[in-house]
Write a structure and sequence with these properties.
Elements: H1 3-37, E1 48-51, E2 68-73, E3 85-89, E4 95-103, E5 110-114, E6 122-125, E7 129-137
Antiparallel strand pairs: 1-2, 2-7, 3-4, 3-7, 4-5, 5-6
């Protein structure tokens, strides 16, 4: 067999292996996604359940009006994680659900929140943060 033929067959074999591994990863991701959509994920611990109101669309595709939100109480000394979704009381005492995008200081005494559809961030005192969203049941 010629050297070119061997290289061609080797290339086909490597391409076939790569294609199979890509399909396997896609199937695994699709199954994971399906489990989330069908609500088969393990329910994390939660303290309270709330139904989202239809006042705002600040969290857009992440959370929708009338979705059920499972929340866990946040202790004042608990570590806050960037990217997690929390509820806090706004200055006019309205409950707000937004994503943590930063901290103004190392201890996160002033947290920086933003709705996924908002352009403007909101600075929130640590004492105003109430719950961490642990799970969402989509309607």
């Amino acid at each position: 067999m010629s050297k070119q033929m061997e290289q061609f067959i080797l290339g086909l074999f490597i391409g076939f292996i790569l294609a199979l591994s890509s399909i396997a990863l896609f199937v695994e991701y699709a199954e994971y996604k399906e489990e989330i959509v069908l609500g088969k994920t393990i329910i994390q611990s939660f303290d309270t359940i709330g139904i989202l109101g239809c006042d705002s669309n600040s969290m857009g595709l992440t959370l929708n009006c009338r979705d059920t939100v499972y929340k866990q109480k946040v202790d004042q000394n608990e570590t806050l994680y960037l990217g997690n979704i929390y509820t806090y009381r706004s200055w006019d005492n309205v409950s707000v659900i937004h994503r943590l995008v930063g901290c103004k200081d190392p201890d996160c005494n002033v947290a920086i929140f933003k709705g996924d559809n908002n352009r403007i961030v909101e600075f929130v005192n640590r004492s105003m943060i109430e719950y961490r969203v642990t799970m969402v049941e989509y309607t």
